[in-house]
Amino acid sequence: MTKHTLIALTCVAVLGASALAAGKPAPPKGTATISLPGDAGMAFKPGPGAGPVMANCLTCHSSAYVSTQPVLTKAQWTAEVAKMKAVYGAPIPDDQVPAIVDYLTANYGKP
Amino acid sequence: MELGRGRFLAAAGAALAAGAIPRGALAQTVQLPFANGERPLVAFPQKRPLILQTPRPPQLETPFAVFDQGVYTPNDAFFVRWHLASIPQSVDADAHRIAVGGEVNRALSLSLDDLAKMPAVEVAAVNQCSGNSRGLFAPRVAGGEWGNGAMGNALWTGVRLRDILDRAGLKATAKQVQFDGLDRGVLPGTPDFKKSLDVDVARGDDVIVAYAMNGAPLPVLNGYPVRLIVAGWFATYWVKMLSAITVLDHVDDNFWMKTAYRIPDTPGNSVAPGATGYPTIPINRLAVRSFITNVTDGGTVKAGRSELRGIAFDGGSGIKRVDLSIDGGATWRAMELERDYGKYGFRRWKGELVAPPSGSFTLAVRATANDGSTQQATPGWNPSGYLRNSIETYKVTVA
User: Fold this and answer.
1) B236, B265, B282: which is the final residue of a domain?
2) pLDDT value at position B47?
3) How many domains are there within chain A?
4) How far is B18 from chain A (nearest CA, A)?
5) Which residue in A32, B54, B103, B135 could disulfide with B34, CB within 3.0 to 4.6 Å?
């Protein structure tokens, strides 16, 4: 620990929060650690097509990215799946795309 | 290092372990004011229970009642929005470096100790998601389905980006400055989240590399240990866990600039639903907005006299006036502006409401900024659901 850090730590210890409040705060020190809750217990609805949906979509995002959407049409879900492949690099096999779109339309959309 | 500037002992307070959220924690929900708007209230690490939009990547919305409780949004209530799911859950401020490179004379690797030795500046500024209020769009659009709580106002402390750029020395070829943080996509093919500003914007007085928020270290989910602050601009530019500043000799053509976060370059940045073929530009400054904070749409007010309170903000010209209507916008009355904490922050306002003995009526609030911009009754529309700033209305019943 360098000398000036020691002095600063003493400063904090002696003067406490009032010293911090009086001046501008300094950059933080040390490691901040959190533990994120993953999908927080959320899951896709069961049903035909849920398998490929879980195998592909859950790689990058929780089911809430789907379940919170407004009612999207089959054309809109088709575009969303295409965007995941083309823009975000999702390695969705072409032969699984129809089942995924049908599942999303049936469970979170309209025809 | 100056004696008066004690170092935060972040590690002592920041090492939190949330673990899995117990089932019971999902029981309490709120209903945002649009179809499919039910959301659980969940406490993420370093956060009080917030409106859970999505857990991974995390998107957490501030319950609107928080905005009635003070001009600054508390750190543990401040909204959260990440694009990519690979987010460091343990960040060592002592080891953190910001790489400065590209079209500069001297590449730098800046530690937080280096930032501590530079002049510190403070600015109160609103951080608002581009898609705040997206759930209220009609017709609806896909995306993060936020209510009005994807925003917050904080006092940010840090160093001017300009001071960093001057230390590195911009070459004559410098065109834009690009910012990257520690977050990454899960898949190798996912474009890394990077944002860029024109050099003249990046060198502005109120573009700050911030290491403190409301006098405390940033929560991890808000970008510990440093993030970019672009006061007056939408949050998409406020890159969290800032790790690289790269000066470009061209206009950034990465996905997050060239394709995402663009608005129609049309009057009011608005288009008709289904329109195609119009030019677009990167989203930039906040549009003027105002809200009532102690009344809810569909709620109640007291008969007779009561106090109304609220907030207003714009993209940095400051708030000139806030007007209230109780007759559906036919007549307006000026409200009293409270203390000015700076042109980029929330401006609180208050005024007296005189309600009839019974019945229902509609309150409306409209802010006007110093640059003359104001709010319209009819919302604009764009396919990404950005920039909502129409006049807020509140149907209330006397109770």
Assistant:
1) B282
2) 98
3) 1
4) 5
5) B135
